Amino acid sequence: MSVLSAAPEAPVAARPELPPSMVERMTLILDAFDGRSTRLALEDVARRTHLPRSTAHRILDQLVRLAWLEHTPFGYRLGQRALGLGGRDGGFEEIRVAAAPLLHELQIKTGMVIHLAVLDGADVYYLDKVGGRFAAVVPSRVGGRAPAHSTALGKAMLAWLEPEQVDVQMGQAIGRLTSRTIADLSTLHQELNRIRQRRGLAFERGECFAEISCVAAAIRGPEGPLASISLVGDARTPLEKVAPLVVDAARQVSLSLHPNLDSGRRPRAVPAAAGPTWSAQTLDRLMVAGENGDWL
Questions:
Q1: CA distance readout (Å), 207 to 80, 98, 110, 114
Q2: Angle at 253 between CA 249 and CA 254, to 5 degrees
Q3: Are residues 163 and 265 in the same domain?
Q4: Residue 145 · residue 119 · CB < 8 Å
Q5: What CA–CA distances, in Å, run from 53 to 47, 63, 90?
Q6: For a tag site, which of 104, 227, 247, 290 has the least CB within 10 Å?
Q7: Which DSSP state fits 32?
Q8: Same domain for 49 and 189?
Q9: What distance in Å separates the CA atoms of residue 105 and residue 109, rounded to the nearest whole number?
Q10: CB 184 within 8 A of CB 170
């Protein structure tokens, strides 16, 4: 009588031992992002790090709050603090290089002060400032910050975010700088809706500094706002006349960075505007006037 021997069972793969400390686990998650443009969902992070999903989610939330990561509708990506380790510009050199010739062209055409800024939490962070005769009066500097809700630069970028993301981004940071500053989230959302109705044009008159006015438009990427450009003048500057110039400059920088960007479509994350207060025809007429050099 022959005895059939049982086939040996396949060895069970040992689960990688989890790092014991929080610092090691955070490092493990950051190492999962192998490039500036890497986007990972929660499941991707858990799979790459072998961390339990609940653990990965908890640490991801902490990294987002500390700006090491950013949470977008398309997943997690490296945040400004992580990107900033590679250099003082925080990883924005590509935007600065793409925008530089347009900023100088705007300054030559208008004689106004030009700003380039990015959104950093509840603030705008100035990447560049091109001065005119008014530059010394404008209390801004490259590397400086200002509350996003009080500037045309900030509002132009916030308008391209979901309302819920604006609430998280701004938190309790809204406060008055002048008597004209927006001081609560409800009023800010109303203003952002007006900006969307104006096809992305943001205005600010005396909200950050009493005697200064600005108009701005966002530089956009496939996933939302990348930066914004503003024209700065005094309280008497007719911003509506120069507004199409800043719109066109922001559009050109957007297409320079993302040639396949369909600039005529609003990202799905942003709610549709109820109805235009500044019609496309009006803006187009102003654009034609600008091409003829008839601005100020």
A1: 26, 29, 22, 17
A2: 115
A3: yes
A4: no
A5: 9, 15, 30
A6: 104
A7: T
A8: no
A9: 6
A10: no
Alpha-carbon span 64 to 127, nearest angstrom: 22
Same domain, yes or no: 61 and 170:
no
pLDDT of the chain, 296 residues: tens digit per residue: 444 444 455 554 445 566 667 888 898 999 888 766 678 899 999 999 999 999 999 999 999 888 888 887 778 888 777 766 544 455 688 898 899 999 999 999 988 999 999 998 888 999 999 886 777 778 888 888 899 999 999 999 999 999 998 988 887 778 888 888 898 899 999 999 999 998 899 999 988 888 889 999 999 988 889 999 999 988 788 888 899 999 999 999 999 999 887 644 444 444 444 444 444 455 555 444 444 433 33
Alpha-carbon gap, residue 231 to 203, rounded angstroms: 10
Residue 90 token pair: 């925080």
Q: How many CA atoms lie within 13 A of 273 on its CB side?
A: 20
In order of 26, 113, 165, 197, 283, the CA distances from 274 in angstroms are 43, 33, 20, 7, 18
Pick the closest to residue 51 from 89, 78, 24 (CA basis): 24
Q: How far apart are CA 9 and CA 212, in angstroms?
A: 77
Q: Which domain holds residue 276?
A: 93-291
| CATH assignment of the domain containing 48 | 1.10.10.10
Collapsing DSSP to helix, strand or coil, 78 comes out as: strand
CA atoms within 13 A on the CB side of 59: 20
pLDDT at 194: 94
